[in-house]
Amino acid sequence: MIIRGLSIRSGRVDERHALEELQRRASLEYSEYRQKLLDNPDIIELPRAHLADGQVRVAEADGRVLGFSVVLPRGAGMFQLDGLFVEPGQWGRGIGKALVGAECKRLAAQGGGRLEVVANPRAEGFYEKLGFAVAGGVITMFGPSRRMVLEIKDFSPLPR
Hints:
With 160 residues, the chain is of the alpha+beta class. 30% of the residues lie in helices and 34% in strands. A seven-stranded mixed sheet has the order 1-2-3-4-5-7-6. Strand 4, helix 4 (95-109) and strand 5 form a beta-alpha-beta unit.
């Protein structure tokens, strides 16, 4: 079920801690990452500069924050999806797809390029449905993950 009235806006510096708590709730849902997160609570940090520089998008409905994304520039036409988090009770309702879509639309208006993400194994299928392709593997502090890439012009909000 898609959320009615969902809107995407720029994140604000004054909501930094609330967004970090949303990230914490979403991240703790995965049992295989829970202990590492609990042992290292400082892992979850949304730098103030990301908000101040307009690199954070927030999804909300009825005045309630439901998720957020962070996209960082990585060079000419290259961008990193550095974070994508949705309230656990709202998973599967199109919020993550809406956030990625809003970022792709924004980046396309700036000339497009490529969007990369390091996808945990549980999220690979989500990114594949959006058009991301596996471009290699990486080792993170949580274990092996895949680097996935999307040509921004190829993003489709329709299921694949």
